[in-house]
Automatic annotation (TrEMBL):
Alphabetical keyword list: Membrane, Transmembrane, Transmembrane helix
Domain of life: Bacteria
Biological classification of the source: Bacteria, Bacillati, Bacillota, Bacilli, Bacillales
Protein name: DUF2834 domain-containing protein
TM region positions: 7-25, 45-64, 76-97
Amino acid sequence: MKREHGYLLLAIVGTVLPYWYFIPFLQTHGLDVKEFVNQLFANKISGFFAMDVIVSSVVLWYFILIEGKKLGIKRLWVYVIASLTVGVSLGLPLFLYTRERKKSRGV
């Protein structure tokens, strides 16, 4: 399997698994942001993971901007939106997939 296909597979898994938990929340609470934040920071352990993901997202955005501009990848906002709508679990492998494709074309 090519590396880029591995990243694409990870992007799919990185979308399915988080939404496996998020869709039942939406079915129960809808887009209740207050309830979402309450549950996200319900205890110290969930807060730990929430802050880890938030910081990882910011680091990912920085990486996307630096690496994306260096390689001339267009529409960098797509990867930021992917990380905001699903998470780092989609944004990172999706960007790495695009990066591998760009590099394999001789950039």
